[in-house]
Fold this sequence. Notes:
Blueprint: H1 2-12, H2 16-36, H3 42-50, H4 52-55, H5 64-67, H6 81-84, H7 89-98, H8 118-129, E1 158-166, E2 172-183, E3 187-200, E4 203-208, E5 211-222, E6 227-237, E7 252-262, E8 267-278, E9 287-296, E10 298-299, H9 300-303, E11 307-319, E12 327-337, E13 344-353, E14 363-371
Antiparallel strand pairs: 1-2, 1-14, 2-3, 3-4, 3-5, 5-6, 6-7, 7-8, 8-9, 9-11, 10-11, 11-12, 12-13, 13-14
Helix pairs in contact: 1-2, 3-8, 7-8
Bound molecules: heme C.
Amino acid sequence: MRKAICTQLNGKYAAIPAVVACIIAVALLSGIAGSSTPQLSEGERIYTSACVACHGADGKGTSQAIAGFKQPDSFPDFTRCDQTTAEENVAYQATITYGGPYRGFSQIMPSFSKALTQQQITEVVRYLRSFCTNAHWPRGELNVPRAIATEKAYPEDEEVVTAEVNARGTPGVTNHIIHEQRFGMKNQLEVDVPLMFQDQAHTWYGGVGDTVFGVKRVLYSSLPKGSIFALQGEVQVPTGNRTRGFGSGTTTFGMFGMYDQLFRTNTFLQFQGGANLPVHTDIAPQNVFFNSSIGQSFAEDHGLGRLWSPMVEFVASRDLTTGAKTDWDVLPQMQVTLSPRQHVRADLGVRIPMTDTAHRPVQLELYFLWDWADGKITEGW
Ligand code: HEC
């Protein structure tokens, strides 16, 4: 081809300028050809040979007629940033290594543990990430394990049911039913309904507490740095019965910031600090608080399996009234994933007051959470 062009050129314009023109022409042509067929990356090469038949060259999935199977509801469209960015790379690695059923997905998704090395799987996951072209979505790795008291910065699609049981002092149980829902790229709505049950003078009373409505927004997130920062505003509505001690009797505005830091070792830190400002300060005090958590995740099966996350929280709260002291609690706990898909998890801990121990009982605290964006609660087992 190059030779043909040069012979033609040489034939038309004999002598030196023609030779120079020929060299430039060839250089230009090969330059253009080079940019139109770039070198395939290792990940793209693997994807093209092993994954395209089912997942499509565009990452959206091949039609049923060609692929020969009906796509499950959870079939990924790798171009949908809203569906893929919440997934951690290890979740993808686990599915590719051990096949769909390992994470409670369809067995149509084959295991590549024999065909590909871990390095090749890492490369193909890197290539999968290139289908989502908007880098502003917060990445799921920054969704560190939820602590009991310290709210995390990552926006969630979650249902959480918590229980706090007094281990000493007045028998009582408080449950929270928490609904968290993402909207847009960086926002989340939250509704928290407390249910309280207390033994008051040997009679059990139960009722709804003060319901909280909140909006969270991520202001900064960076996967390479392992950091995420978000702000949340809340309104606590006095739905609880004040005379029973289930409610504050006043509307309260809350505002707090959350900063989480993840390290390469899967160690994580979480910080949350803010204030609660009641409208009627004569019946409920203004209050500032600071919660923090340090933890470490360990995953079975060389980092791809069930996740155990021991954490310790340090929780501080102080009423803004004259003479008030800061209340400190320590909260050791363990979170574990229950479903193979890791979308159903439980956490059990003990809240141990360090100050004012006479008035504040030791509490057993636990929660169950279900990340409903990852599938129905009955799926993924
Ligand atoms: C025989 C068809 C087939 C082939 C080949 C195939 N997949 Fe899949 N893959 C599927 C199906 C079907 C699902 C959806 C499973 C479900 O949602 O239950 C899936 C799901 C996935 C998921 C989503 C897991 C999650 O967490 O949502 C990833 C990642 C994935 N495949 C990567 C790959 C890669 C990379 C390759 C090539 C190395 C590949 N697949 C080859 C059929 C296939």
